[in-house]
């Protein structure tokens, strides 16, 4: 497997996904190591001379005016980690922890944080050896960075806390020992360098964004199948319509639908059955396209954040300066995650409306609830309820976290971003969206049994066949919970997209 190189400059969201989901190894570029070494020398000189530097020769937060002697500089960092490691809640999932470790290493590789090479090497070794810290997901204000949860990562490097290793949950020291690694003794500035940053919100946010991109493509594919099963009118997706409202994303979705529906024997012309379709079909490019605009915005912010120095203070070698600033403030990611929640919630909202059209006999020519024995059997009646429940839940989760702020540290830190809350809620929204889309796909698959799968376009027939590979037709009533979960997982994994694109051509 290809090693992902970290240089603090050009890591991508897809790189993060490879490390998180595929366990790709990481390594630091040679020039990055040199930057780290040079910056560390600057820290050691500051300690030797006793210069007043926040978090190095002073306390933290409201204690920033308390002087710390050089001989206590190392113990200060140990105390910092132990006192700040008070996050709560369920542990972050291992892919998100892997992303977190990678992104923290990438930020440190920029050479503005003052960490020692041996400490950074241990962080990389833990990632590559599969020592994954147990990081509770709740407790960050999103400024000064993700202090509480990141401290649980730092604990493991010290041989404390807990970590997962080869499927076991162990003490941090035991996990390191089993992996053949040795804990470090934190020195001046290192504890602060490890925890003062936005990597919790950014790791969750990056993986959520990657999943959202996959679901956006999947939504076009599933919608195309629904259009066929409802004998929809593809003229609404014509190039002429969309070039006169030239949003690139809207144009792209319309192009996707034309590719996906090419060769269909089930779609109809204007006036053949009806003059125009309901909005949930006819306005697909406009709605799905607008959600793609949100993804474009989020992609830009994620790309910048994963290659940024987000701790405090920052050391600038060329200028010979140590500057206390606020790059740890998560407002950009907080806004991006809140926007992502809204954009993806709409994909689910319109999907649920298409599901309703598939199961409601008043809105289609299909049997009531796609039942093969209506009345005696309920068919797909209740999966639509589940979709409705999930989209309603998303409306609550989509409330912006970024508009809230609670002062902390005796009002020294008087405005915070709540960016990690926004990212966590975005991840929940994406999970719900995957299930809503799965329900639509399962219902469209059932509808295809009635309208005739042989009439499907080649691309949507491929999607239908992929569905049938894991979900049998619902010929008699049965529980469909496992079916929904399996299809949702397949949509999030993304391989179905590649399979369909092999037939339709590349989709936007």
TrEMBL record:
Cellular compartments annotated: Cytoplasm
- Position(s), cross-link 5-imidazolinone (Ala-Gly): 143-145
Provide a Gene Ontology MF annotation, just one.
histidine ammonia-lyase activity
Species per Swiss-Prot/TrEMBL record:
Tumebacillus algifaecis
Name the NCBIfam families on file: hutH, PRK09367.1
Q: Which HAMAP family match?
A: His_ammonia_lyase
The molecule here is called: Histidine ammonia-lyase
UniProt-listed Enzyme Commission number(s): 4.3.1.3
Residues bearing 2,3-didehydroalanine (Ser) are: 144
The lineage, from the top, is: Bacteria, Bacillati, Bacillota, Bacilli, Bacillales
């Amino acid at each position: 497997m290809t090693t992902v190189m970290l240089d603090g400059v050009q890591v991508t969201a897809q790189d993060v996904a490879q490390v998180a989901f595929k366990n790709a190894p990481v390594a630091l570029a040679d020039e990055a190591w040199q930057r780290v070494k040079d910056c560390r020398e600057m820290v050691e000189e500051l300690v030797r001379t006793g210069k007043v530097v926040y978090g190095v020769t002073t306390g933290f937060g409201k204690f920033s005016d308390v002087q710390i002697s050089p001989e206590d500089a190392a113990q200060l960092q140990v105390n910092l980690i132990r006192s700040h490691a008070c996050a709560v809640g369920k542990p972050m999932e291992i892919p998100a922890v892997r992303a977190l470790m990678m992104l923290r290493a990438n930020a440190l590789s920029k050479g503005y944080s003052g960490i020692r090479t041996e400490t950074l090497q241990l962080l990389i070794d833990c990632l590559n050896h599969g020592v994954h810290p147990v990081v509770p997901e709740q407790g960050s204000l999103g400024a000064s960075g993700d202090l509480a949860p990141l401290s649980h990562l730092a604990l493991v490097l010290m041989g404390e806390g807990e970590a997962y290793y080869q499927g076991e949950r162990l003490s941090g020291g035991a996990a390191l020992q089993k992996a053949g690694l040795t804990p470090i003794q934190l020195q001046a500035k290192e504890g602060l360098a490890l925890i003062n940053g936005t990597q919790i919100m950014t790791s969750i946010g990056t993986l959520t964004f990657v999943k959202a991109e996959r679901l956006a493509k999947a939504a076009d594919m599933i919608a195309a199948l629904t259009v066929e099963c409802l004998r929809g009118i593809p003229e609404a997706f014509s190039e002429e319509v969309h070039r006169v409202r030239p949003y690139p994303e809207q144009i792209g979705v319309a192009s996707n639908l034309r590719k996906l529906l090419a060769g269909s024997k089930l779609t109809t012309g204007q006036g053949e059955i009806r003059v125009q379709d309901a909005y949930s079909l006819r306005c697909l490019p406009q709605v799905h396209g607008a959600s793609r605009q949100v993804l474009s915005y989020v992609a830009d912010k994620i790309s910048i954040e994963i290659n940024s120095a987000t701790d405090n203070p920052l050391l600038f070698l060329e200028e010979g300066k140590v500057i206390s600033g606020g790059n740890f403030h998560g407002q950009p990611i907080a806004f991006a995650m809140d926007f992502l929640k809204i954009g993806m919630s709409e994909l689910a909202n319109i999907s649920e409306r298409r599901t309703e059209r598939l199961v409601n006999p008043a809105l289609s020519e299909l049997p009531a609830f796609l039942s093969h024995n209506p009345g005696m059997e309920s068919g797909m009646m209740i999966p639509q309820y589940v979709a409705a429940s999930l989209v309603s839940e998303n409306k609550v989760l989509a409330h912006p976290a970024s508009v809230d702020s609670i002062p902390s540290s005796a009002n020294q830190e008087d405005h915070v971003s709540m960016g990690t809350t926004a990212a966590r809620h975005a991840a929940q929204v994406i999970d719900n969206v995957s299930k809503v889309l799965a329900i639509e796909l399962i219902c469209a698959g059932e509808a295809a049994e009635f309208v005739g799968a042989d009439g499907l376009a080649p691309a949507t027939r491929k999607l239908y066949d992929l569905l049938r590979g894991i979900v049998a037709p619902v010929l008699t009533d049965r529980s469909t919970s496992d079916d929904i979960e399996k299809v949702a997982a397949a949509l999030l994994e993304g391989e179905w997209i590649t399979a369909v694109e092999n037939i339709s051509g590349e989709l936007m």
